[in-house]
């Protein structure tokens, strides 16, 4: 078993009993893609909705659009099949009341939903928005995602 | 033109260090009188650090901190974020409100506004330091606060300045009240054009 911690604007793929982890998602969103037959999972930790916002920063995994697409492609190379995949999504909070006008968290979540719909990957579970941070553990053995927050709100999606 | 905080040369870094020193000094005076106790301070450390390292310097992404966010505009566009530990914040609130049982993660309205006021005082201490050294006109927004994991709090300035690179200006203050040591952090993220403007005024560009 391998534990892989995925930092902000990064992604990783795991299989069988690997665990993929993202700590302290704030307005960022953690997207977990899973092929239950191949038991291949992938996680990406995005911070912005649209790669076109910042054209001179080409890191694909920072953005919902390019990040999810790139992760999906990478998983297919490893043997996952897109038509079997489902997604679980966490994060996209609005941490400070003063950010409500820009609410980047909500924009991130909306962008993620749109991209997943375009890729025809159904969302099987989500814990998004609200006003607190989340850490997530994604188990590649069965696709379970555990979500923990600093407010002692612990759920499984 | 500056592209990254790490492009700042030694005199520019010294100038920022000096602003950090003066600002922290001002903040200390204000806080001491607010809680009617003497606060001792070591020389603040001013660093330019990558975002991922900032998390580690705060004790890890999942360490809970009290964050206060303030935006500045006028001659200086940017964000200030204060990160205080929970014990230190409780001690300050005890001094201000006279009560000690405060749930910082879901504070009542009174505590919430007291936390924001502490942030406001601290922010203005740094702003005043900059304004008095440079004559710049700087406006500050109404502060808002949130107690949560350091990594989640840091994602806010990180996203705000995503186009500017992955570094933060990080001021670490070590306080001592009643033989207890506390560490607080100030993240200062002016837009690079504002920093250039600031350094010009200080004659170190």
Automatic annotation (TrEMBL), chain A:
GO molecular function, one term: protein-glutamine glutaminase activity
UniProt keyword Hydrolase present: yes
Key words of the record: Chemotaxis, Hydrolase
Top-rank taxon: Bacteria
Reaction(s) catalysed by this chain's protein: L-glutaminyl-[protein] + H2O = L-glutamyl-[protein] + NH4(+)
EC number, as in UniProt: 3.5.1.44
Enzyme class, broadest EC rank: hydrolase
Any one of the GO BP annotations: chemotaxis
DNA-binding is among the record's keywords: no
Assigned protein family: Belongs to the CheD family.
Function: Probably deamidates glutamine residues to glutamate on methyl-accepting chemotaxis receptors (MCPs), playing an important role in chemotaxis.
Protein name (record): Probable chemoreceptor glutamine deamidase CheD
UniProtKB/TrEMBL annotation, chain B:
Pfam families: CheC
Recorded GO MF terms: hydrolase activity
GO BP term, pick one: chemotaxis
Domain called CheC-like protein: residue spans: 12-46, 110-144
Record keywords: Chemotaxis, Hydrolase
Name of the featured protein: Chemotaxis protein CheC
